[in-house]
Amino acid sequence: MRGDNEVKKFSVVALGRACIDLNAVEINQPMEETATFKKYVGGSPANIAIGLAKLGQPVGFIGKISDDQHGYFIKNFMSKAGVDSSQLIFDQDGHKTGLAFTEIKSPSECSILMYRQEVADLFLTPDEVSEEYIMTSEMLLISGTALARTPSREATLLAVEYAHKHDVKVIFELDYRPYTWTSTVETAVYYNLLAQKSHIVIGTREEFDILENVSEGNNQETVKKLFQHTPELILIKHGVDGSFAYEKNGVCTRGYAYKADVLKTFGAGDSYAAAFLFALLQGKTLENALQYASAASALVVSRHSSSEAMPSVAEIETVIAKQTWGDKIHV
Amino acid sequence: MRGDNEVKKFSVVALGRACIDLNAVEINQPMEETATFKKYVGGSPANIAIGLAKLGQPVGFIGKISDDQHGYFIKNFMSKAGVDSSQLIFDQDGHKTGLAFTEIKSPSECSILMYRQEVADLFLTPDEVSEEYIMTSEMLLISGTALARTPSREATLLAVEYAHKHDVKVIFELDYRPYTWTSTVETAVYYNLLAQKSHIVIGTREEFDILENVSEGNNQETVKKLFQHTPELILIKHGVDGSFAYEKNGVCTRGYAYKADVLKTFGAGDSYAAAFLFALLQGKTLENALQYASAASALVVSRHSSSEAMPSVAEIETVIAKQTWGDKIHV
Amino acid sequence: MRGDNEVKKFSVVALGRACIDLNAVEINQPMEETATFKKYVGGSPANIAIGLAKLGQPVGFIGKISDDQHGYFIKNFMSKAGVDSSQLIFDQDGHKTGLAFTEIKSPSECSILMYRQEVADLFLTPDEVSEEYIMTSEMLLISGTALARTPSREATLLAVEYAHKHDVKVIFELDYRPYTWTSTVETAVYYNLLAQKSHIVIGTREEFDILENVSEGNNQETVKKLFQHTPELILIKHGVDGSFAYEKNGVCTRGYAYKADVLKTFGAGDSYAAAFLFALLQGKTLENALQYASAASALVVSRHSSSEAMPSVAEIETVIAKQTWGDKIHV
Amino acid sequence: MRGDNEVKKFSVVALGRACIDLNAVEINQPMEETATFKKYVGGSPANIAIGLAKLGQPVGFIGKISDDQHGYFIKNFMSKAGVDSSQLIFDQDGHKTGLAFTEIKSPSECSILMYRQEVADLFLTPDEVSEEYIMTSEMLLISGTALARTPSREATLLAVEYAHKHDVKVIFELDYRPYTWTSTVETAVYYNLLAQKSHIVIGTREEFDILENVSEGNNQETVKKLFQHTPELILIKHGVDGSFAYEKNGVCTRGYAYKADVLKTFGAGDSYAAAFLFALLQGKTLENALQYASAASALVVSRHSSSEAMPSVAEIETVIAKQTWGDKIHV
Questions:
Q1: Which residues form the Carbohydrate kinase PfkB domain (chains A, B, C, D) (predicted)?
Q2: Domain holding D162: CATH number?
Q3: Contact partners of D by the rule of 3+ C-beta pairs under 8 A?
Q4: Which residue of D has its CA nearest to A117?
Q5: For C152-175, how does the pLDDT look when each residue is reduced to its tens digit (9 = 90+)?
Q6: Which of C32, C38, C72 sits opposite B35 (nearest CB)?
Q7: In what order do the strands lie in the sheet with D243-247?
Q8: ipTM greater than cut 0.85
Q9: What chain D residue is nearest to A95 in terms of C-alpha separation?
Q10: pTM
Q11: Residue A211 domain-assigned (yes or no)
């Protein structure tokens, strides 16, 4: 996927939200009984960018954060993690960084209490998106939540136009968060529009249902429709049933889950996307990329945060080496 | 352009605003001195639909109007003019029909005082757009103003998806009205997005500049970029310098203006579009279509309204027969 | 009511909305069949100010209008009518002047189609209210609609503080318009608050019910509660049953209706208030003031507009001289 | 202040916000370097109610909280602290509880990062205020922040009407928070309106400047204007210069500060108000009440929270017994 004689500055530039996770320190109890919270950087595209940086990739980030202590924390953390934060803009209109208080009642009962009213990330404007920045990357990763509101929506659509103009591959992580949207029909309109303009689309089966505005949609029909447009690779995740990577040439490769010692379910999808893109960028086979994705996911769900928890290449490869692939699905 | 063995119910279905024009009865004076106003149906796509109906075409309309006396007037008028108004929906949330008070100080000094706060036409929702209705038409005409606000914006984008699904040609009349938009960069994002999905794009040079977010753009570059996508025909109007119809195959046909006894400038573009599409639907040549367009335009600018003033085929053909085409441009 | 040795510049300064009425020229039919509308200045406090000016009183006006042809028309008309318009401010944020399209199906079936979304009059700010202007008047007339929204609400409350500080009598015309308010309980809170700070309160029995947040309230209880505060005189109108003027000292004077050749019902209350205040300022008895009010009202309902129609002293006194007072109620 | 032969259920009912404080666990450093936060109930009127309950008073609370884990925590905590929480309503429209992240860089450098966008407490509606509840209390304590937005503003104004109707004393704690208000002139309008209707007004000199819309106002003028209306007692705090309690009869009593081992400055005013009201309710002299207030304040600033930190009567009386009063001011 790398151009022959051109060296890009970044493998991936991610666009979207960078937020604060406040994870309950005392776990396995209701949040109203929790007295202490630990602060982490969060937000799907921020987590993916951090994950890729931990895997040694040169990564950039386009986003908007509050001009306050939470914003400073995010910028510092991402810079230290190795993400270029030159395009992480401080909001000058008083908008706040989004918060996610996480409640971990048990490994299978996790919930999030969100603070996302008028959050800074959704106030990124088209004027703030740099064509020069995007053209220096091999891939532009878009998080679906960036489409939820004006002006971030238009900033995102413009970023994708820039990517097309400069032959930058567009990766669309559906990342559907119902609370940011006003209606599912509106979500479907923009998800469909962006998917048609993306080279790789990644999401759960439920998220593709949202994109198509259907219930219990069918993978074959989904990929048939999208392959009429830009997409070359579509990755549909089915939870414990594993995932399916569809290529435009008709080939489908199946992924499986690795066994994990689950602490919580947050962050699984972000580590999955980061490791998958890393493997693709390294020229690995699709099957191998799915292994990297599943291994990274298994590691993150066993840890307390989603960003700090992002694994190294060695950790991922240890999981792949130690566990058997594909004979059965682990829960 | 008509399918071989399929007969469509409508030639054109127009989508967008249907409003009220309140034209000064006492003209050639400032509006603040005007005491009496005459009421007409207005709004670019409504005028085009009425114009096409007057030319004998089967036409439908998708839009939203107020559930009050102004809305009833519009629905009655359009039905009587021969436009199918079954998809002209009454707003149930108290939104008003837009108003345009027109001031005619002199033929060259016309201005409009708009009432467009929270107008019903911009509250058309995706759920209210019927796929069945659109598929029964040969063409779907979109007015650019319908893209200005959520939810009409999403309703419009969805209508275009339906059109593509059913091989309905999409006509995009740019119809740029600055007061409906929050920023030109936002306009550019959506205009560009929709133009890429349209078969025919019609606008003034200034409107194409808005679409491209440039100043003093160049026709050659404009059409080169758009012909990479869906467009087959692009019509760029240069005022008194005439208009240029660009085809994907590289041919450009020039149109000229006919002489007119100008009363006011309103409505010229709408009659132009109506007569142009009529001629195309009749299988006329592009040059002939440009003659119909210019003749219709010359007739409407000499009359008091934009909707009631729409000419008949005979009136248009009389202008074409009487005047010389192309030797010079008339102001 | 005039101070002994102090001469005030104005008898009355009115605060609130000045709008446009668009009255159907063709009457006795539904508005959707009406093609022509005649433009007048409208809005309750504007009408009262114009009415007082026509009766020879020095009158000022505090309000906000659109910076467009409709605003210019209002300012010109009020100035020519003799109202000081130095405090009639042009809105610099694009807010429009309110519109009222009137439908006169029959003398008893009149309705109004309002355009009041984000209207300029409700954007008057506290900073724009001049203490110096208010202190030069004997009376400050407040229209209830000015309380409907922030910032006009706070501008009004501040104006009343200025009036108290400088011993200017506060007249509260309830002027309840449901479409400007979000809830009746909110209306009740502000109506009650302002009534407690007013010297004279004028309204219909239905409007006092809104003030008290009750249904079918009782005049005795209404005045008992309000007389615990600032009010000295309370005027409650009961339609065809006449009106009742309650004084703090316990005296109640009844008013009756004069016979009228009714064209429409709009404007009756405004002419009533104007003539009543005029008579009080002239030192007439309360009974005589009620006669002036009823006579003015009878004259306006027989004419096409509410503002231009305001009668002269001679016209009012002719009605009083010609008709019998009090033996029966005329419809 | 207690009625002779009537026993009220509550000494004080407080109305306003109940929120979440998230206090940095690691103190004396910038917040962006803080990883852990401890959760407490916060918000001025909630703190005062909790403080009064800790001093053994029967206390009620009227407010609105989020229907989520943060809301449940508040309701549980206040109930356990002894505050009647029957009128603490869960918001059914998705509004969140306000958050205050506190940064303690040093005892004198404390700042707060607020999350107050569309917070539940400002969505208390007039319909949700119970006249029956208010009438069962001796005092109604209003926090100024409750006036910042509609509908909480109207709910507050209505609560005060109920208090007057049933001879419940109104206590107004100015509690000015600039970030909740759109303009200082708007704040002045409502602060002045409510102060005129309150029996006791408590605030800092700076807060009274806001009320009067002046800079560097003068206590004598402040109390002269307010004593023309309802107020009987006005308490103006001058930081290290102590505080002044003005009575309508002209007497002024001065309060002094006690020495404290300051950890942070938050919560000082709330403990001050709680202990002052407690002493008044106990029939103590004004000077003694000022001692209780200062002692409580000295205790809270030496502790980590504002709510849990509220002192007992014994703790307060120990401070009063141990320290000298009035010979000098302690910082």
A1: 11-311
A2: 3.40.1190.20
A3: A, C
A4: D117
A5: 999 999 999 999 999 999 999 999
A6: C38
A7: D83-91, D59-66, D10-15, D137-143, D169-173, D200-204, D233-237, D243-247, D252-255
A8: yes
A9: D117
A10: 0.94
A11: yes
